[in-house]
Amino acid sequence: CQVVVQCLVGHQAVVQYSVGCQVVVQYLVGCQVVVQCLVGHQAVVQYSVGCQVVVQYLVGCQVVVQC
């Protein structure tokens, strides 16, 4: 599993932790979480409350946080 954090100037994103294929991303307002998967893979966003997002996904997927 891979987490890619991409932010515009003046924005920040914080990856709280990454255990196995579960990633918790806490980020500022104005950020967007994009899940990109290779062919044959799936990704599931468990929940999104405020600016905290929990994404549980399979191998071959990456989470991109765009601010």
Structural write-up:
The protein is mainly beta and 67 residues long. The protein has one domain. The protein has strands at 2-6, 13-19, 22-27, 32-37, 43-49, 52-57, 61-66. The strands form 2 sheets. It has a 4-stranded antiparallel β-sheet with strand order 2-3-6-5, with no helix packed on it. 15% of the residues are buried.
The total strand number stands at: 7
**C-alpha end-to-end distance:** 21 Å
Name the average pLDDT. 55
Uncertain regions spanning at least 5 consecutive residues:
none
Q: Walk across the major sheet and give the strand order.
A: 2-3-6-5
Question: Main attributes?
Answer:
67 residues, mainly beta, four-stranded antiparallel β-sheet, three-stranded mixed β-sheet, 7 strands
Give a quick summary of the entry:
By secondary structure, the protein is mainly beta.
Blueprint of the fold:
Layout lengths: L1 E5 L6 E7 L2 E6 L4 E6 L5 E7 L2 E6 L3 E6 L1
Parallel strand pairs: 1-7
Antiparallel strand pairs: 2-3, 3-6, 4-7, 5-6
